[in-house]
Write a structure and sequence with these properties.
Elements (H helix, E strand, L loop, with lengths): L2 H6 L5 H16 L5 H13 L3 H8 L8
Helix pairs in contact: 2-3, 2-4
Length: about 70
């Protein structure tokens, strides 16, 4: 397993989920996501089990939202 693959498989913490939720909230505030997209992603953030799942939900957002 490659290092990035190994990191993707690490279990997400509540803090990791809160951080991802904050990123998508900022994206909504900047008009990068619709309310519907925000709702879908927020639901998925709190259901995510791994860092990879969280990364997939924010991969298309600018890194400066982190």
């Amino acid at each position: 397993m490659e290092p990035d693959d190994a990191r993707r498989a690490v279990r997400a913490s509540d803090t990791d989920r809160e951080s991802a939720a904050g990123r998508i909230a900022r994206a909504l505030g900047e008009g990068r996501l619709t309310v519907e997209e925000f709702d879908e992603r927020l639901t998925a953030v709190y259901a995510a089990r791994t860092l990879g799942e969280l990364g997939d939900l924010t991969a298309d957002l600018p890194r400066d939202l982190w």
